[in-house]
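Hello,

Our lab assistant flagged a job as stuck in the queue for most of the afternoon. It eventually completed. Since we weren't sure the result was trustworthy after the delay, we are filing this so someone can double-check. Below is the sequence as submitted and the structure that was eventually returned. Let us know if re-running is recommended.
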Amino acid sequence: MKKMTITKRISVTMRGFSILKQYCPGLAQGKAMYELINSIQPFVSIWFTAQIVNEISSQRRLKTILLYVLGAVLINFICALLKSIINHVCNEKESQMWSWFGKVFSDKQISLDFVDLENAAIQH
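-- returned structure --
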């Protein structure tokens, strides 16, 4: 099998996204937003954890530690909520797209002229 060049892969991918955008607007953007939140969320948790450890090792201010803990919990909750909403919307869009494709394929199949094999002698 011949390998595709990077530029060819990029052009095929861009063509695929443009076709997807025609049939299901917003699906690719929604999936990208979901993955962005999914990839950033652990780094936010790590940052808050580092701030908590720094505060515990240095000044030990209870209010500041509680603020960091509250911030970490709140940010993770918001990220989980956003991911859930985006995932639900994307799944609904994708389901509608496949339902529409099923209708299109069924209409195409019904519109084709097939020979009635049981009554082939009558048709000739």
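-- support follow-up --
The delay was a queue issue, not a problem with the job. The result is valid. Residues 40 and 99 are 33 Å apart (CA to CA). The two ends are 47 Å apart (CA to CA).
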